[in-house]
Specification:
This protein is mostly helical. The protein has four helices and no strands. The longest helix is centred in the N-terminal third of the chain and has 15 residues, at about 15-30. The relative contact order is 0.15.
Length: about 80
């Protein structure tokens, strides 16, 4: 069996994970055990649309806070909406 090679690594938000799982489910017809558990978790936690998440991410990015990295922007996007 071939060993997978990582081509690119970057952080994605929970909203993007939920969207990608929906695409995989549509393509394959069903998800495996772990993907189903992840989908259940995301359906419980994520209550924001992908468009709203992108808008919040852009708003945080436009603040141009030098210490704020991509990972923190993604976390703050989720937390900003979650606690409003």
């Amino acid at each position: 069996m071939n060993k997978p090679q990582i081509i690119q690594e970057h952080a994605i938000s929970l909203v993007e994970v939920k969207d990608e799982l929906a695409k995989i489910k549509k393509r394959d017809g069903e998800l495996n055990f772990r993907a189903n558990k992840t989908e259940d978790y995301l359906n419980t936690i994520v209550k924001i649309s992908p468009k709203k998440a992108k808008d919040l991410y852009k708003a945080l990015e436009d603040l141009q806070i030098p210490r704020l990295k991509d990972m923190m922007l993604l976390l703050n996007t989720f937390n900003s909406y979650h606690f409003l």
